Protein 1
Amino acid sequence: MSYTGLDRFIARQRFQAAYPHIRKGSRVCDLGCGLDAAFLDFAAERIADGVGVDDQVRDGAAGRWKRVRTDIRQPLPLESAGFDNVVMLAVLEHLPEPEPVLREAHRILAPGGSLILTWPSGMVDPILKVLHGLRLVSDEMESDEHQKRIPVGTLQQMLHRIGFNEFIHYTFEFGLNNLMVATR
């Protein structure tokens, strides 16, 4: 099953939240980009060079963007300090052990670069379960694999230990989703 219309609508809300934090001319890595690296297309006017990384994509170039098929929980086959932004949109909640992935995000970010994260609140899971049962959200959304959410303060402490320093956090979609920008 491919993405549903509701999947795309939900993703677009995350894209709109992350977009203002991408500077024009940026090198962007989308970790956990999903089937079609859609955020890179959404933000194309601000992206000079983009790479989508996921275990669901095909390796190689597709349109303007390079795609790398790999498990993001493993060391990434990407150059250190090669990106101005790393985006992880609705990825954090799928990671049983997020710290190694966040360390890799830090490694591939250039000094002064930013990590842009979105993740749903735990209140979303029962809603997604019903929507999945009705086949309104696809299996590709992997909502059945959501982990217990990390409290914002704990996540910020983890990111600080890794080497991030400036933080912006807010919620969107009536408090059902979070956005955090952490600067290297």
Protein 2
Amino acid sequence: MPARILLVDDEDEVLDAWETSLKPLKHRILKAHNKEEALAAAAEHPFDLVLVDYLIPSTTGVEIVAAIRKRLPLVRSVLISGRFDENISRAELRDMVREKVEVDEYLHKPAKPKLLRETVSRLLAGGSLDWKDVAKKAQGARDISDSDTKLVDGKLAQHLSKKK
């Protein structure tokens, strides 16, 4: 059964590139350009994974993931950005975000299609959880506060590069 994937970026070219990269996996893909579209889509569809750009006008990918997790606590997530200093590792960025918001993976933009497919496949193949894990994830998602997302965004902002 194909997974449902939500792609979130304010640029159509990026959304199209991500969709093209993921097409060989044969999952159902929906695209959103902003937080409002992403939340409306999450209200209508039970997504298995959300792939979101970090910097989107008037919000951040961290805020979007936190809001979606409140509705879909088991959704897997990938945060992606081309604005972070490439001297900081993907693991360091992922750990900063996981601390409060539980983003599963971080990728530098532009992500190579093969890496994007491998990351999505690995996250979707993560296996099933027992009921205690489900309850813990659901409670954790409900407990994410605006101050948690602002704390994570503050840590991440320190690593933004000057490039556009």
Protein 3
Amino acid sequence: MFIRATAVIAAVSLLIPSRAFGAELVVLSSVAARSVMDELGPRFERDSGTTLHFRYDTAVVLQHAIEDGARFDVAVLTPPVMSTLTAENRIAGAGQATFASSLIAVAVKHGATKPDISTREKFVQALLTADKISYAKEGASGQHFQRVMKQLNLDEVLKDKLLPMIGSKEIEAVADGVATLGVQLISEILPIKGVDLVGPFPGDLQGRTELKIAVGAESKSVDMARQFIAYVTSSVAADVIRAKGMIPP
């Protein structure tokens, strides 16, 4: 396993030209990609000599920041937000790529009994049994969860149990015992200490969240931004994407 990991790192390094030392890139990214970027980013910095500055938040919050004039070179956002910003000429239309996607799932406090959510009926029972359910108020996963509740006619039944949260605190709330269940993307559940992954939403209740990556329309480092995008969407980087609970394109 160690030999294979070493070979992967070496192969990835070959994808990055050893030039542009002293260059900087600002990357605005959905928090869903953070665990992947935390691993791929330092490798890119080491091998390219480029310094990366990351800002993580929900896609909607980042959209507002960009529309308010935030400077950036690369953005990792959900398709609807990316489309809006492209139409507003804030993101370059050329060279956009699919970065990865992640399934929406449920988490419980570490060591707690994991409810069976393998079918629609068992998923509903788990929601009805939970004392409190936390989810992202503004994130794509939270928006999907709200649609699912309406689809299942549970929005009124569960309203007193729901804990909509901002600032990516919904899974930490589970670890702290504030919520019984937490709803979030698998890629955002796995890095949080003190919680266990129960599993993805079942069947047609699932809503895979996709992330797109693109160059900012006003970037002054377009070539390096494109190299960064090529690197994090490469076949070798896909191993890291899978390991962090995401699905490569």
Protein 4
Amino acid sequence: MRAALAAAEPAGDEVTVRMSSSTAAELANWAVDRGHLPPHYTRNLEPRPDGEFRPHFDYLAGDPVRPFKIHVFQDRGGCSYFQVGLRLQLRIIDDQLEVTTLDQIVETANASRVLEAALWVKQLVQGSVDRSRRAAANTQLTVGGRAFTARAVSAHVAGDDLAFELRLASAAPRTVAPTMVR
């Protein structure tokens, strides 16, 4: 007699979501255009309504060194353009999504000569920049009228994709007071 098939793994409560990095860049642009992300930043990259600089995100799969691009347009108080190249690292720490930009460097600059010279000197002295930001790694979803909590339990860059493992659980039903008819 041949060996029997192994029992199937029970259905889990985790699902992996993969998104192409170019789709993520377009979603970021959509979020900026719709006001879900700040549209303007200061020279120090602080989001401010009176900021002079507006970002546009892109992903170039053919660039093996720094495929994520941020095109920065100065649309107030001057006229300049910068292209910043970087790599991303994603991970979950303490129930928060941490996004780290690695090897961030200005690859192209079209600005006043003084500003371009200052930028190149700064990069020469400082080198590439690594920065991290954290955000909540959980949310509530409603599918077919059922509410679920979704918590990211892992996140990483997989080739040209962003991968997230989500743990889903039924959300506690909302208690609604009965309608009183008089």
